[in-house]
Amino acid sequence: MLKESTKNDIREAYSRVVKGKKFVPRQGQRQMIAEIAKSLGALFEPDPDEEVNSVCVVEAGTGIGKTLAYMAAAIPIGLESNKKIIISTATIALQEQLVSKDLPEFKEFSGVEFEFLLLKGRRRYVCLSKLDLITQGVQNKFSSLPMYPDEVPITSQTDRSITYEAMIDSLAIGKWDGDLDNWEGSLEDNEWRSITADHNECTGRRCPNISNCYFFRARDGLEDADVLVTNYNLLLTDLISGGNGVLPSPEDSIYIFDEGHHLPDKALAHFQSASRLKGTALWLRETRKILNSEIVIPNTLDEVRRSFEIFGELTEQIEQKLLLLLDIVPSLMEVVEKSRFSHDRNIRFSRGLIPEKLSKASLDLHNLILGLIKVISKILGCLERHLENNANSEKGLIEDLHLAVNSISGRVNGLHSLWESFSGGVEKLEYPYVRWISEVNYEGKNDYIFHSSPLMASDLLKDIFWSRAAGVVVTSATIRSLNSFKHFVRISGAPAHGVYKVISSPFDYSKAKFVVPEMDSQPSDAEAHSLEIINLLPNLLNLEQATLVLFSSRRQMIDVYSGLQEELKEIILLQGDLSKFEILRVHCKKIDDGVNSAIFGLTSFSEGIDLPSHYCQHVIIAKIPFAVPDDPVGAAFSEWIDDSGGNSFMQFSVPEASLRLVQASGRLIRTEEDVGRVTLLDRRIVTRYYGRAILDSLPGFSFQLNLP
Prior knowledge:
By secondary structure, the chain is α/β, with parallel strands linked by helices. The chain has a 7-stranded parallel beta sheet.
């Protein structure tokens, strides 16, 4: 329970901000502050019978002002309880808004004294050691050697050299701070990968450039900061590695997840692993070749030389095992390609169960990779001992070698996760793992990608996060599915005993229409449905000046766009032709200039974009956004529900579709003055038994469901 003094601190901070910024207090905002404060108050009198005492999940409708609400409640509590506040967002834009606007304003007006810091991962900063080497013509061949060349854009060596020299110059005069997000020029992923380091490659205090390292400079204020702003990826990476790596330990932290509906999917992506057969074999071969012909091992490191010999033998054995699997996979595809577990030459193993022949081969691979990891660890240990000797005349050579081996180590650890799963070594969770194989073609040659994923992130999040965090606040405008938090709890692992609250938007949705016109086609007949949309769009796009048209599939978006008359295409901005940022910029400029504009977009335009007032007056949704049927994880989840006696369509497909439809229709009303229209070109919401449940989950629009 909160102390009376802390309650007063919260009230006074909020009142000062209201007075300073001269806005009318919002009832919903006050309610959200109260709910968060009440939940986090358990930090001071924890219940010994509960694993997690302070979890608050708030669905706060658009216009509540949730950022101010969670800052006003959580920051004073964090200061009082001596816990770090960690605010995590799904996008860079939200992070920048927090550190450049929201937090400085709250600090200025509230009178609360606190320090804040933006934290990014190592991969967002240039590695000076790598940049120095590469500009001297010396390159870490292992970090620059792509695992799979077809995934890396081709950049000429001349262009790279110009870019790297420009970076050196910008760093020297203080024009650039080494942060990727602040580099003004264009940069391909492979260009950046060559000059940055992850935790496997970073030598830390042993690095000769440690005093000037931009990553460690960015962390200088970590100990003094009361509020840390970071992204989901860094937070999850830190948690998976045990916590207290870059960020404070979960036990000493209060977490705030902004746009928190992303947490389950972001976590699930972090727990997944994948590896190609032929591509990995070729990478191992090339790595062995570089070690044998281009790496200089100092004479004083006989132990390292012997270990590299074992390394070569093991990589050769792994390579042969991978190539042998190439002969197994086609026969597996022949067996299951006609079953419900196959789609477009992709095969998924029912309940994650691997055929015995493949399981045995995977176990052999896993054991060999474990042996390789031990050898690499031995090499790194030896190199680190020699690096401790400051008088070593070959220290520079050893540092380069250490960097190279660390590059290899990170990739080998990734292989370990995949083959551990396929060998059956991770079956300790409530839900089964999902395992599947997909086919890929590169330069006319086939290869196979092996994939592994937990069915849900919930089990693993319970272990590394929910059971450890001192306090958690999850907030978003859309967390519930079908007016219930049950789906979020199931897929996230959030404790059922937490506080779950809905705070409705102050906006009047009844001023906007939700229209479902009469149509002859069904989305199940993709060709007929697209043709009918093509026929309807000329009239629909003329209803308002600014329109957002949302599709569930790229193919339908392209088909519809291609079928429109040329004069109509002129007003359309098509996702893929320009960047998302550029599409929004051009769209707003056209509207400001009095020119009609329509955006054709996919899922990424269904959330996280803000087109208030006259910038979006009409949202057209092609169909109810059900998940694609060929998603292996979604398909496995549905299978598991059905096999457990449930109804996967109503328990998974419909809740997910409901959430996406709420997000898509939410693009219309962004301010108190906004009006307009949402048009859904899918009669199933009216004609099918599940339609009423989806309609009931939408905001309080003025519904018109049977228009001719």
